[in-house]
Write the C-alpha cells for this entry.
Amino acid sequence: MLILGAAPRVAVPIARLLTRRCGVPVEVAAMVPSDPKLRSRAIRHFVHLPDFLREPDLFTKSLVSLVRERRFDMLIPVQDGAVAAIAENYEVLSSLLHVACPPPRIVERVLNKDFTIKVAEQCDIPVPRTYKVSRASDLAALPKGLAFPVVLKPGERKGVPTFKVRYFSRGEDLLSFLASNHYGELLLQEYCPGVGIGIEMLIHKGECLACFQHRRVKEDPPSGGIAVTAVAEAADPELADASYRLLRALEWEGVAMVEFRKNHEDRKWALMEINGRYWGTTSLPLQAGVEFPVYEWRLAHGQDPQIPQAYTEGMRWRWTTGYLERLHRILIGFRGGLGPRISR
C-alpha cells in the first residue's frame, strides 16, 4: 500500500495502524524533493518523487513506474496536492490499483471552495457571507459597511504553496495585502465566532459507515486556523446530518472531514470547508477507536469493515510541534493578521 504525501501527522499514524491491524506493508512517497524523510518502523520504504508542480510529467511517470515496480494495490492521498495529482492522473492510476478518492469531476467540487459553498447553500447549510477578491480594487464592489474582522482564504486547494487562512481587523491591512497579492483568486468571508468542530465520515456507496467528531481546543493562530489540541466528542446530530447531506450532494465517496465553527452562546454554526482526504487530527479518531484507514482497506479488498458502534469520548489529542509554535507566537505578541502559514 502506498501513501502519497509526506505529511507526518497523517502518514505515520495511518502506516502504524495498517501495519498493526491488517499486516499491510506501507510505503510513503513525497511529492516534492524538499520534503523531509519520514522515519518509522511502520514505513517499509520512503521515496522522493519529482516536484509535482514544477515537473508534472516526470512526477506522473515516476509515480506510475513506482506503482508498477512495487506492485501496490492501494493508493491513499494525505495532502491536497496528492488528491489533485491523483485526479489529474486518475485514469491510468485507477487502472493499476485501488485509488482512495473519487473521480476527478467529484474531487474538483471539494478542492474548489467556492463551488463547495454554493452546494452547501443549495442544501440549506449555513455558510459565512463570501466574496471573491484578487485585487485591492475588488473591495470597492463589496457591500457597504463590511464588518471587521474578516477572513481571507485561497479559492482552491490543489497543493500550490499558499496560506490556509488570514484574519484582518483593519481595512488598511486588507488593502495592503491585496495590493501585493500573488496567490490568485481569494475568498473573503465574514468572521464566524465560536469553536472549530470537525465531522469525519467514511461514505461507501452513498451510505455513511463511520462518523466521528472532534472539537478544537487550541488553534494556530489562536484566532482560528490549524488544530494543535483537540478532544473527541459525541457527534452533534445537526452537524452530522449537514455533513452527510453535503457530501451526498457532492457525490463524495471515501473519507472526508467537514469543518464547522459553532458559537455555543447563540447556538449558531456555519460551514468552513471540506477536507477530501485524511486530516491533520487523523490520529485522534484512530486512538479513540474509529479506524478509518482499516475500514477503507477492508472495503477495497472485499472484506467486512467491522465498524464499532461507539468510540471513546473525551480523549484528548495534541500536536506538540504546533502547540509550541502557537505558544511562541503568543509570547512574542503574535497578531492573527500577520505571518501566513505556508502549506501544500
DSSP finds eleven helices and 17 strands in the chain. Residues 336-344 have pLDDT under 50 and may be disordered. The first helix runs from residue 8 to 22. Residues 127-192+336-343 form a domain with the Dna Ligase; domain 1 fold (CATH 3.30.1490.20).
